[in-house]
Amino acid sequence: MERIYDKDAAGDLGLCTGRILLLIHCGSRGYGQDILSRFFEPAGLEDGSVRAEEYMAEHDRAFMWAERNRMSVAEKLLTWLGSSSEPGLLMDSCHNYLERTEAGLLHRKGSVSARKGAVVIPGSRGSLAYVCIPREDTAVSLDSLSHGAGRKWARSICKSRIDQKYDRYSIRCTGLKSRVVCHDTNLLFAEAPEAYKNVEQVMGVLQEYGLIDIAATLRPLITFKG
pTM higher than 0.90 for the full model? Predict the structure, then answer.
């Protein structure tokens, strides 16, 4: 925990100064790609058709698999760190899925729902993450919020742009004095802080449009990439 801005909101979420939290970012990427390859049609699927219902059934299974995958990763990491306690879930959100609304199907791509409580909006391994409380009226953004700062560079060009800036040791450190555990050098460069937008600017826009209140910020201590 870096700083608490709203004691009541943070307290309701179980957040307090000095507490160490585990933030998991993973889902069903490979599974989802497989579903896309089997169901994609240029003209789309007709809502209510047999094919569309089959797709939604697969979609829901991938959604559930992603939730369970995050809990499995949390359990394994806590075991590796020597903790014997069961992980307690504070928040959970998904940022690439279909949601049926009164107006129809809404595809949240790179965004999270503002209707499901508090969310974490991270920047990169080299910046703070923000715990946010959605405002009551978020209709202007279709009840959606940014799932993070978002990429500035494509993964394929990151290493060529910053290869001379780091060596094999410095790429595993951040400006916040945190450490990165990763055995894949290409992945380290692809996920470098420079590859992401400025999360403070993103937060400023969300506040400007009256979409969120900030409850607390989180500072990364150790980042696992794999």
Answer: yes
